[in-house]
């Protein structure tokens, strides 16, 4: 029996390697990233405005960088959103820290106070924006913690008002004059006028050019945030891709050319030259190169010590931070 099991595992690995190669996307867990992008997409649909995902903002007080999951900006207000993709029973301690039990992990998972962390993220972001020459009105930024996982459970309902539990999240509705509703305190509720258009444009420009994690969109609508390191593959393919570097390119899109001859099939890589004056290049400015589908992207995921390899054939698009 054990012989059959071992042979089956060997066959499966050979089968997977033959058809998919050693692509880490098959094994890398993207659920936390997927949850963040799902929350961002829903917020944008509900409240309009502009959503920024995966900011990596310098913190002058600590000399390090602060990770910010989501920033939602409308003409009335803005919010820093921390996404906690927690499954299991959550309890809150007196110091504000959380403990999660009964989820996918066999042991309890403890985390610092997410509300305090979100508040600090908002403070760091405000300081960064002001350093770039834009004064933020008092109360313009709010901060929230969203728990979008349907497997979230709690023993009691005494979460701070800044926390949006799963049940609240699925019931979230837009309000005509406010970005966020119900249990989310609006910084501009009470009839304050919209920010001047020039301020709004400046703020969006600063956020669109702020340091961010690089982004991979891979097959099955999954996402990975982290740092693009390099391409690996045949020499002629690497030479064809030599112009794709973060100083020159903001985004690339992968398109399949042929389904025949799997080992030697080609992919079309479309990339847009970086334009620091606007959000991107016009469609007519996109350039293209053709490379083997076996070419790999070497990528360091956020909060991971493992360097992963993703075949271009598994990637839909890649965005590079300036």
TrEMBL record:
Matches recorded under Pfam families: NERD
InterPro entries: NERD
Source organism superkingdom: Eukaryota
Domain NERD: 31-148
The protein's name in its UniProt record: NERD domain-containing protein
